[in-house]
Every structure is written in C-alpha cells, then in structure tokens.
Design goal:
By secondary structure, the protein is of the alpha/beta class. Helices cover 34% and strands 24% of the residues. The two termini are 24 Å apart.
Length: 250
C-alpha cells in the first residue's frame, strides 16, 4: 500500500471547508451509538473543523479530536468536553485502551491505513468501535446532475488525488483487520441556494488544485451552466448518499 505521509489538501481552503461541508445525519450517529457498550471517551480522527466532534460531544463525557491541519483546527467549534490536538492519525499521544469509539468522517483514504489500524487497536477499549464513513457525489435533479458529473469526471477529473477512488468505491476495496457490523445506507439532505452549491464545489481539493495549476476557478463556468436550471435565490434539495463501515475492535 502506498504511504500517505500526512497528506494535507485542505488547509489552503479551510474557510471554505468549514463554511460549506454538509452535516452528517443524526440517524448515522444513532446507528453507531446503539452498538456501544459505554459512551465515556471518543476519538474523532481527522476532525477538520470539528463537525463530527461537536456531534459526539452531546453524547460522550469527553471527545478527543485530532487533525494534521492547524488551520482547520483554528476554525473548529469549541465545547467544554472537546479536546483538540494537532496530531497525525497514525501516531497519537493517547493512552492504551482509552476509547469507546473512534470515528473518521470522509478521511480514511488519506491515511497510512495499516499504521492507523494499529493505532486504533492500541487506543481502543476491548470491544470498542471504529466507525468510518464517507459520502458520494450529490444528486439534485437530472439536468444539473449531468452537468456536475461531467465537471467531476472531466473538467477536474485529472486533478483528483488517486485516493479519491477509494471513496467512490465506498471503501469496499480496503481490507480492515476488524470484525465488521453490517450497516445500512444513509443520506445527507440539505436545502441549498446555487451560491451555497458554488461554495461547496469550490472547496473540493481537486478544484483547488485546478485553480493552483491554471490560475482560474473552473466553478465559475460550471455555475453559468447550472444557472440555466436554477434561479439565484431558489432553494433546491441536495442529497448526498452516505456509506458507513462499522467495526468491533476485538
């Protein structure tokens, strides 16, 4: 497996990332929680702006959240029981047998996974859980979906990191050394304006790489096409399919 040595593709657009990333659905967390023995301490790995950590903090006594991006952590939402730390996924300052739950939202594909799995084994309590998930390309309506799919595959397709393919495959090709708990599919549903969609698409790592390489934002031309199907202040329902891989650490 190719090493991912602390790859950070999100610090540069940390503000966009914090503003426009969709929020994970509560039924995802509820499904995970029903398999826990205790809810004392959780580790949210690659926390980004603390979105997952904030949700976990309402249910756990303590949440420890790590990321390799100081810029992301600066934008993370504070809570009295969340403890943010600058740390890679593969080597943390945590104690052995510390956590009831480890979560990774839309980030496992960036890790050195063998080393991360060893770290999860070390810091997890007996019968603790590892929950990793991600979300696929959004769906809006057929005419707009075709435009966005073409943009995704062709305009910025060459600028996606190779790890993105693992998300598209819903992590099915990753070998996990843990006992899997079969999980249903979930979905994020949001009501967005066309400007919110534009901000989200601009936060993509491939979009930012395109901008860095070519000196222009390809989202501008994209939104001109989408604008033919979407009035400026009109709200449309955006659906993101969410997949979950849930494991018992034995």
């Amino acid at each position: 497996m190719k090493r991912h040595d602390h790859k950070d593709l999100f610090s540069a657009q940390s503000g966009l990332y914090a503003a426009f990333r969709p929020t994970y659905p509560m039924d995802l967390y509820e499904f995970i929680f029903q398999h826990l023995h205790e809810k004392k301490e959780a580790w949210d790995c690659a926390t980004g702006n603390g979105q997952v950590a904030t949700s976990l903090a309402d249910h756990f006594e303590k949440v420890f959240a790590t990321d390799i991006s100081q810029q992301q952590l600066k934008l993370a939402k504070p809570k009295h029981n969340i403890f943010y730390t600058l740390s890679p996924a593969e080597q943390t300052p945590f104690q052995d047998n510390q956590f009831d739950l480890t979560t990774v939202g839309q980030a496992l594909h960036w890790f050195d996974r063998n080393r991360f799995f060893e770290e999860v084994k070390r810091v997890s309590k007996p019968d603790g859980l590892l929950a990793v998930w991600g979300y696929a390309l959004m769906r809006i309506e057929p005419a707009i979906d075709r435009i966005i799919t073409d943009f995704y595959n062709n305009t910025i397709g060459p600028y996606w990191d190779e790890a993105r393919k693992l998300v598209e495959e819903e992590y099915r090709t990753i070998e996990f050394p843990f006992e899997e708990i079969q999980s249903p599919a979930f979905a994020i549903q949001v009501g967005w304006t066309v400007d919110q969609l534009s901000g989200y698409l601009s936060s993509w790592s491939a979009t930012q790489k395109y901008i860095s390489t070519n000196g222009l934002n390809p989202v501008l031309a994209l939104m001109a096409n989408i604008g033919k199907h979407w009035k400026t202040k009109q709200l449309k329902t955006i659906s993101f399919p969410v997949f979950l891989r849930l494991f018992r650490i034995c």
